[in-house]
Amino acid sequence: MPAACVIGLQWGDEAKGKLVDLLAPQHDHVVRYQGGANAGHTVVDGDEVYKLHHLPSGILHSSVQNYITPGVVIEPTTLIQELDQLQQRGVRPRENLIISQRAHLVMPWHLLEDQAMRDEAVQGESIGTTLRGIGPCYRDKVGRNFAVRAIDLVQDDLPQRIETIVQAKRTYLAALSGRSELAEQLNAQEITRTALKWGEQLGPLLGDTTHLLLDALDAGQQLLMEGAQGSLLDIDHGTFPFVTSSNSSGVGISSGSGVPSKWIQRVLGVAKAYSTRVGGGPFPTELHDDVGDKIRKLGNEFGTTTGRPRRCGWFDAVAVRYTARLSGISGLALMMMDVLSHLEEIQVCVGYEVDGQRVDRFPCDAGTLRDAKPIYETHQGWMHDVSNARSMDDLPPLALAYLKRVSELVGVPVEVVSVGPDREQTIFAA
Length: 430
Ligand code: GDP
Ligand code: IMO
Ligand code: MG
Prior knowledge:
CATH topology of the largest domain: Adenylosuccinate Synthetase, Chain A, domain 3
Number of domains: 2
Largest sheet: 10 strands, mixed
Bound molecules: guanosine-5'-diphosphate, 6-O-phosphoryl inosine monophosphate, magnesium ion
Number of helices: 13
Low-confidence stretches: none
CATH class of the largest domain: Alpha Beta
CATH superfamily of the largest domain: Adenylosuccinate Synthetase, subunit A, domain 3
Helix content: 25-40%
Strand content: 15-25%
Oligomer: single chain
Radius of gyration: 22 Å
């Protein structure tokens, strides 16, 4: 199994971090290949809780080499903070991390651009980004002229590059926001001083991850690819424009990491036993009632990166069937089964009604999805605490029936069931 992958199948926060940390020791290398500090991946190690934004979730295992590859956008101040905080807690992340020289950097102007656009509505609603400068940075990457990459931090022309970009960005920001204050926050000399410090800190960690990973594969070593966000937030295949700016479904693995698809053999799709979403955009099974509040409370559904309350709703089998196919999923990991233990009735969306017609395929535009009415199938809740279950035999028959039905609807076998945040609260189906 040269390369295994963990991919979110919903709108992010499916508990990818827990799964990657758990699977990491069976691999030689763990790879973060897209997204940036918009991600918040939680790893629980006994009493310690780690919230990782850039760092791959294999970082706690000293025997595993971790990589940040070209498709990731790095906000250096946040990354350095993450490294320092882990160091203070006794982890040595600088010893098993390599950062691609090709990765693009989120610069101070990108944060201001994200801020300036925060309340702008598209299709009547704001995207509600994480304000981590993700969209503006990827925009400049594609545009090329104003991009700054990790390798630029250790090159002599850095001050000139920053000077040129700051001049253009000041004009752009003033026009974008209609206010000059934002633009005035950009000072080329100050940014250059900061960037040179970033270079001192991050320079020793830079390497050519593309060659290193290809060499590892040729040598028969095992890779674990860690997706960020979820497939429904994919820039090309998600609920556009309410998406992130990278390919967060399985289609982004090769482009972000440089690992050709011929090596990818196992793709584990991660989904919650219900649905959540943070930020704007259509969400057909969203609950606006006490049940939604109960799920939020029981699942502690508040953003890992921004602390925002997550919107909660029922499992949407139309959406997950679509993303399981799109992401090439070979097995399903169904998380947060413990959260549903306290509900008398559980609904699963098995189709949508659009303009009076039944639809079984996930619509391609946000407007249609906003108008789609979910068609539900009702399941009796198991009303039994499953957080101590350690094998499929420990689960009540109604919980097993729920898993079986979800697997049938999605079209993929359930390989992993999670019943709590701890590593041991995980069941691997035989
Ligand atoms: P990620 O972004 O996909 O890595 O997910 P997050 O870390 O943002 O959110 C998942 C949250 O659920 C974290 O707080 C995890 O500690 C927690 N978690 C993981 N698995 C389970 C589970 O099976 N049950 C419960 N109750 N919490 C879980
Ligand atoms: P992990 O990896 C959940 C959402 C934001 C917003 C949209 C665009 O922890 O699952 P962006 O800042 O990327 O431009 O925001 O995407 N979003 C996430 N939602 N989990 C994430 O990451 C997310 N990363 C971005 O809330 O709706
Ligand atoms: Mg998260």
